[in-house]
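Dear colleague,

Thank you for sharing your sequence with our group. We've completed the structure prediction you requested, and as agreed, I am returning the results in plain text so they can be pasted directly into your records. Please verify that the sequence below matches your submission; if there's any discrepancy, let me know and we will rerun it promptly.
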Amino acid sequence: MYSPNELTTSQPPGAAATALPGQAATVSQSKRLLFIDNLRILLICLVLVAHLNDTYGSVGSWMYRDPATTDMFTFTFLSVLNGILMAFGMGLFFLLAGYFTPGAYDRKGGASFVRDRIIRLGIPWLVYALLIDPLVLYIAHGLPGSFWSFYPLYLHGIGSIADGPIWFVELLLFFSLVYTAWRFLVRSRPQVASGTGPMPGYLVIFGFILGLGLLSFVVRLWWTAGFQPGPFNVPLGYLTQYVIFYILGIVASRRNWFFKLTPKMGRNWSLIALLATLILFGGVVVPSVLQQTGAGGTQQAGLAIAGGLNWVALCYALWESFVVVGVSIGLLVLFRERWNHQGGLAKELAADVYTVYLIHPLVLVGFAYAFSVVALYPLLKWGIAVVVTIPLCFLISSGIRRIPLANRVL
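Please find the predicted structure tokens below.
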């Protein structure tokens, strides 16, 4: 995900229109990278699924958890699904964000680029912190008294102003400012010509995966994955992946890598990610989590894999790196080759993605709190929540974007 103009228009960098003979005309005529718009629709749906996994029983943390007791099957299924989604979901969002950064800066110039980011990232950040987040926490705490008596307590808690998934917007704003500073410092240097640079080969990509995995493992000796949020609620255990993939997106934009990926690479790297999942995740990580669950209950499950000097954490970090690279390549190729077109519904959904990200905690927590009085099998409740809340988030977002002046920000 990126700022709303990139989310909704997916304007290609300068090299995009010269990438593939069969697709150059499409990009040139529409001035949109429709396959990336469509990919973002999938990714935001997976974000909602991941948070519903946390709500109904997976290992991890979220702003609200259903009070019903979770059985072992539900816990295992949702935890495995969540682990896979966390391995690549936000990393791919940061890759796409970085991909559109150079083009946006080139079109607007430094001052306009910063102003646009402050409007489109800073204002939603403030609205979330001052309105959405307190409403979510008010519901999550069981509607304690009147909202107006709860609100001053919220404002008094400095840490609460950064709760929830708004960390992504905060981090993108910070990355944008750092990129602007870097462009200012190197302004006298000639810019790299669009489309130059060969596509990395398999050995280079393997080396990148191993380096990313080892670096993540080292970082998690101090900041564990998923259990230890840092300042502004940023998940420090995943920060290495996010920073590197944002930078990778910038490089990919300048060298036109999204269009140089071949269908064969897409198939091969998807298969490599699957094999890594079967060997490292299925053969090492999941048995370790289940063993911890049996010994200490679900609250202790996953602590060893999240970080520390142990071989399970190393396998987990390496597996995540294989998955985020393999799935990113596979999805980019798949959507570019199969879903580089849009009808009216897809166009509307793509325009709603950023707003969905901002408002989904309120929708998910509100629904889960109201639904908590219904006694059903936890996995069935999860399935109903997925079916109901994903369309609901898009419907509400579509209405919000039509509020006067909202489209200037969203």
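Summary note from our side: The chain has a mean pLDDT of 85.

Kind regards,
the structure core
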